[in-house]
Amino acid sequence: MGLFNFFQRYFINDIGIDLGTVNTLIYKRGEGIVLFEPSVVCINRQTNKIILVGEEARKIIGRTPANVEVVKPMKGGVIANLEIVKEMLLRFLSKAQNKKSFLRPRVAIGIPSIISDIEKKSVKEAVEQSGARKVFLIEEPVAAGIGANINIYEPKGNMVLDIGGGTTEIAVISMGGVVISNSIRTASQAIDESIIHYLKKNYYLWIGEQTAEELKIKVGLAIQEENELFMEARGRDIGSGLPKSKTIGSNEIYLALKEVVNSILDLVISTLENIPPELSSDILENGIVMTGGGSLLKNLDKFISEKTGIPVRVDPDPLRCVVFGLGKCLEDINLLEKIKL
């Protein structure tokens, strides 16, 4: 082993964390993404001990006995249960880190721009108590922009629309900083919840979160199409409690998601209405870059473009944009110092 490789393996231990409502991603400097797992924890109610985390916990959602509970400790992009998040992070970091490393890691973590100072403090505390020696807080739209290969230092406006699990955030970035940003607690999770509510209301069919997500991915869309897609949704009849299935078309999912999609559009329009004319010209030229898992909803980019008259493109790897951006910051300490909160 060469001297540089030895030094990198045992001493360089910088980590980027995209701690999301739905998924947690970890980037390790020099290695890339080393963990991509659901932000889910399985707890024994009798002992209050965590049994499983991540993908192992997600697999048993809806299949647990009475004394076992599966929880999502992140809500709306922020920490809902500090103690559980600390333990979840400890386990994720244990998976991601080189256990032989001599140093505790420096950690860059993405946070929603909407969160309060108290919520920022909770995030920092959770990461510090999970073993970090230093924590850098980075606004997620900025990290997403960097991860999407936007030159955030050019004297031109670039707009990033990041639709995560719990929050949708939009930011106009120019000359290395955020000129204007806005966000709502309506995102991918709200899309799943809308599908669940629609089927309950219209078919008395109660489906689980995983089925809702599958419907979103397979037949969900933001603009109706002539060639309708169909999927069989299986769940439970609300009246009888018996198993029930129903074939659902994409145009019905379009109706189910109309309110959520319009909320995201309203966020884009209200932000565009409040930026200087010079930046409006830049955005008309550069377009809007969409990141985050919610940007994968079929036709959402087309819908926003048609309603605003601005070109919209979805990043080729939208789920990983934030963590890639955090990773680039870790590789360039000057960049990290400039954009940290």
Summarize the structure in words.
There is one protein chain. With 341 residues, the protein is of the alpha+beta class. It has 2 domains: 11-142 and 321-339, ATPase, nucleotide binding domain (Nucleotidyltransferase, domain 5); 152-314, ATPase, nucleotide binding domain (Nucleotidyltransferase, domain 5, 2-Layer Sandwich), CATH 3.30.420.40. 39% of the residues lie in helices and 27% in strands. The protein has helices spanning 3-10, 55-58, 82-96, 117-128, 140-147, 188-203, 209-219, 250-272, 277-286, 300-308, 321-331, 333-339, and strands at residues 15-19, 23-28, 32-38, 41-44, 49-53, 68-71, 74-75, 78-79, 106-111, 134-139, 158-163, 168-174, 177-184, 205-206, 230-237, 243-249, 288-291, 312-314. A 5-stranded mixed β-sheet has the order 3-2-1-9-10, sandwiched between helices. The radius of gyration is 21 Å and the shape is flat. It starts with a helix and ends with a helix.
